[in-house]
Amino acid sequence: MKSAISEFLNHRRSWPITINWCRSLCEQINVNDIKPDEFAHLADKIGDIYRKFGYRDYIWKEQITGKIWERGFIDTLDLKDRVNVWKGAIFIGENNETIDFLRQKLVDKIIDGNAEKVSIAILTRILDCMNTTNYNDPKIINFIENLLKSPESSDGKITGNFVGTLLSTYGKLRVDPTNVYPIISEILASKFSLYSHNLKASVAHSLALNGIADENLWTNTIFKELLKINHRTLTTWKLSEIHHTLIILELLHPFFKETKLYNSGKYKNMKKKTQEAWDRVFREKYKKDYRNMKGYCTLWLQSRLHKDIFSTFKKLKIKLMPEYQTEYPYTLDVDLLYPPNTVIEIQGPYHYIKPNFELCGKTVIKNQLLEKLGYRVINIPHFKWDSLKNDQKPDYLLSLLK
After folding, report:
1. pLDDT value for 288
2. In contact, 249 and 331? CB cutoff 8 Å
3. I want to staple 238 with a disulfide (CB 3.0 to 4.6 A). Which of 120, 140, 234, 267 is the partner?
4. Phi, psi of 166, deg, nearest 5
């Protein structure tokens, strides 16, 4: 008879797994019976379930994951399993101290000089973890770049998913793409297939975020792929990425408006389709609050930080427009508009790169786009706001508006 652990690890049932199945199986697992080589697989599997369903209240967290993070245990794992444990901890929602500890254990394995051949799938997973946690670790970046320069050191062919994740991570964490651009450019310019419409959107968006303005690459490769996209098959997120890509090119890259492509019927048709698809999505999402592509949306999903800052402005009797839609609506909306042209962006934890707490790539680009449109941009960092006493907050806001 299979043990509860092996049944859980080898389960191949179609998603979604029911809550009752997960709970009953988990209750049968005796932590003391788990073998060392099963811990990493458990972390990875549990992390996937938490990510898909947001189950944060199970006994797994205390009975299983608590044992997984034991400091002596992690040293017995190879590189692949350390990545799986790190990923599991991130999606389970462990505290930052634990996640940073597991990332450091991964770095320790990388720099000990004895790391085994790493698969492209594992490299993709490492990048995904860095992207999710907003952590720019130069040692991990150097490790990945060295593997790219020496293909024999990695296991397997470079995939479209890896290219998209690499570029996305570089753009978000503001890593200089100089070292990887020649390699990526060669891959994209070859017969490399961006088989997925969503992947085509990701690669284009990531190139734009990285500031890569290679006219030949854009006109002869990337846009040829984008023109093939069926907009109705795209997720809302990917539709947003294409819309954002076109705005970045038009506002921040002067070369683009001089190309034949920009003035062609094909490009204008693609732009029109993207806008129409974007309009359709938001008419469905905000039926009562749709404002004809301009103005502001009253349906504002506020965090504690947003509510606190907004209520402080109200006490000061300063009138603001929340979630204001610019002339590029939905893609370039702003947290608060102080008429006529001052934009106040409330920057929470996910807008900053660790460990130096610099604004992440997408946020920097957004600020540049808003400034290009003639707005004055004020950023309110979450850590600055949280460090203020209540009686200091009104003066702080007034000083920003001067």
Report:
1. 42
2. no
3. 234
4. -60, -50
Rounded to whole angstroms, how far apart are CA atoms 402 and 395? 11
E-strand stretches of 116-253: 118-119, 154-155
Which domain covers residue 353, as residue numbers?
A: 295-401
Tell which residue, 349, 298, 311, has the closest CA to residue 132: 349
Global pTM value: 0.78
Spatial CB neighbours of 24, under 8 Å, sequence gap ≥ 6:
none
**Cα–Cα distance for residue pair 146/150, rounded to 1 Å:** 6
Asked if residue 303 is part of any domain, the answer here is yes
**Residue 76, both tokens:** 């017995």
- What 3-state class would DSSP assign to 303? coil
The residue behind tokens 């930052």 is 96
Per-residue DSSP letter, 388 = S
* Nearest CA among 78, 169, 61 for reference residue 117: 78
Q: Does some domain include residue 45?
A: yes
Q: What is the DSSP string of 26-40?
A: HHH--GGG--HHHHH
Question: What are the pLDDT digits (tens) for 331-382?
Answer: 677 888 888 899 999 998 889 999 888 999 889 999 999 999 999 999 999 9
- pLDDT value of position 294: 41
Do 122 and 81 contact (CB within 8 A), yes or no? no
In a domain, 301, yes or no: yes
Q: Domain tally for the chain?
A: 2
Residue holding tokens 């002596």?
A: 72
Helix (H, G, I), strand (E, B) or coil at 401: helix
Last-in-domain residue among 115, 144, 178: 115
Other Cβ atoms within 10 Å of 206 Cβ, number: 25
Which one of 80, 98, 115 terminates a domain? 115
How far from chain centre, in Å, is Cα 162? 14
